[in-house]
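Handout, tutorial session.
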Amino acid sequence: MRDDLAEAILATTAALVVVLDPAGRVVRFNAACEALTGYAEGDVLGQVLWPFVLDPDAIPAVELVFAQLLPGRLARRYENQWRSRTGTVHQLLWSNTELLNSEGQVEFIVATGLNVTEERQAQRSRLESEARFRALFEGSADGVVLVDPHDPDVTWPIIDCNEAFCQMNGYTREALIGQPLDLLHEFPLMAQRGEQLLARIRAEATPRNEWTHKRQDGSVFPIETVASLITIEDRELVLGLDRDISQRKLAEAQLQSLSDQRAHDAQHDALTGLPNRALLYDRLAIELARVDRTEKTLAVVFIDLDGFKRVNDTLGHAAGDCLLQEVARRLQGAVRPSDTVGRMGGDEFVVLIPDFTHDHDVLRVVQRMQRVLAAPLELEGQVMQVRSSIGITQAPAAGGSVDVLLSQADQAMYQAKRAGTNELRFFSSRKAR
């Protein structure tokens, strides 16, 4: 009965069971061994096992062990590789039991084995993967940091980081490990928004963010970070790849400044810095739309300098430019912040005066401009006074479009010029005699 039970166990167990004599000859070779190797028990029974299942290079070491076989000297657990009849290699984990005879000598060795090929392959793959990860981790030019978002005691503690991360933030690795990630933030970002950030990482897989880090010396710099979730030894961690984008931000700011400057230059007079003809047209169109929408009032003032050509001819164009710059400065100082002073070209200036109540309000502003322009000015060693001819038109009283209003103010200016020097006129549709 006991023999039958033993036979049944040998036949049905998934474990490999092989019984050898002290010379390494096969006494039993169970069904699991047959299935693994492709050899029937009858093929190997009474034969030395090694040539059937071991690579030739591995046989001498096993023969040496059996040549020195003594009770208690045989390894209880070990691993080796068996090659099947078809050449497939299997990694096996063995447990040995010695059966002694009445004289205390080894009579049989019972080896029970498990096929651990898949487990060892998985282990090798994991080790290789970890080695590749570590190589990428340490070799990355970007700062790489591992953070635990689930630590109950420390808010998002730093688990590991590479040298680039340390250098970027001005800390040693020893000073960072175990510290909360908020050590590097200007405010407790992870303490306040950690849960939302973790949810976003789960939702978007690798979200990209921009914020700032604070170095150990207190200096603050912008970073771009890409975060993802990884699992290491059943532990969910956040892997962050950080890049110092200070130079990029500087370049972007320079490009934006250049773009802003170009936009400004396209709409402003190069000599005086005042709005040029194009910007004046835009401002006037906006003010006209306000007039139509709100029934506000608008005055358009056209100014032409009297005797400007004589300044250019006698003192030179450089002196003429200085005169135009001074006129621009004085006009800007004479108007309200809501008014617009622009240069149409040459010695012609236009002032837009919105939101006045009565004609005398406009007249008061215009006369103030005349006074500041007439203040003595020294140019090339000569003291002179700036005289001007000024034309004024209004909306909605005069009505019309941008071009019509500018034309009306220009006509009024010529009416003033015909009347003498330093004169002003409101536009009138009546023909001048």
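The second record follows below. Compare its token runs with those of the first.
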Amino acid sequence: MADWFPSPQILILVDTDDLRDQLTTTMSNIGYSHRFEVANSMDHLYDMIRSGTSKVILTTVQMFEEAPQDLQGNDNTVILSDEAHRFMEKRLGNRLDGALPDAHHYGFTGTPVSSRIRNTFSNYSNGEESNGGRAYLDRYSIKEGIEDGVILPVHFEVRTDVGWRVDDIDLDEQFHELTGDLSDDEKREVIRETITSQQLGELPTRVQALSEDIYNHYQQKLAPNDWKGMVVTPSRESAVMYGETLRELLDDPDDVRVVISQDKGSELSSDALVPSGEQGQVIRSFKREDSPKILVVCNMLLTGFDAPILKGMYLDRNLKDHNLLQAIARVNRPEDGKNNGLIVDYRGALSNLEDALEFDDDVIEEEIVAEEGELLEHFEELLQESPGHVLGGYPRRISRGRHRASVKGS
């Protein structure tokens, strides 16, 4: 770079403190600690930019919230934005552009946004469009990541039919009068169309039914090999409900902890709830220690959370687009003995998956993200085609119960 781009100032931008700390540790571990500086305040960052000194500066984009216009002090300024889809089309992105108007800006993301309102491709394409309107300077696909062993494929089960009795729900008499001629399935559909996602997620009988299903699935699929799980809920209140219910089911209540943002004056109170000051320690224990075994979350830990021991995600929240991809990527981190990540979808969120993966055409075609039932059907076909080589020398049908393992490992 020095030959054609002399004395550059390079800014590495992330959007959370956790990612900043993670990157700081990584750069130090590879012997780069003397070559970069972490911005510890807005004034510190602005002074370094104004000076134009040739160095690598690591900062969060939030540090630009009060940045003045035309702050750039080095003509050869390069910006490297991690998770660029999260902020470049928003207000902080505009502040960044105003402060560094002549910088050379490169965005990195595994989950680009391509909607009408926000479009990561257009934002970085300089007017050049290709591949159906999606322009890349360079592209490292999910398929390539799996082939290189950087990430794992993700298998999923759609379990929106888990039984919870409509008659047990505390609804008013008028509802029953209006729906008296409908079947239970039709009543459930009316409920889903009438009440909000949050209200549905906080129905006590539904939380009880799904918690029992999560417990059974966890015991059969994750616990035997010491893998851990995460429950994603639609609200902070439902997170506490899931936490308390699951604690009653597991032998050790401390195996389940609830990690959610806690506003001042919040009335939420539960033995399952981790106080704000203890969340860091509980999260570290989840990654490294025997307990906790299941984390219940709402918004926290769905981006940038790296825990290879996490294999299963129980999804009771209707995520879409990059939010969905970010969430399910929590379970695709490689670990010894781990062949795939596993998503159990109780809300039908994975019906949005093909749209979310539109930017990476290889994914669906290569079964990088695959439904377990389809994998088992394919496995049955292989068994029928291979008599004499499997299962003691004769073909044998596989019983596809609700908790059967995936072909590539559960």
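Points raised in discussion: Residues 227 and 309 are 6 Å apart (CA to CA).
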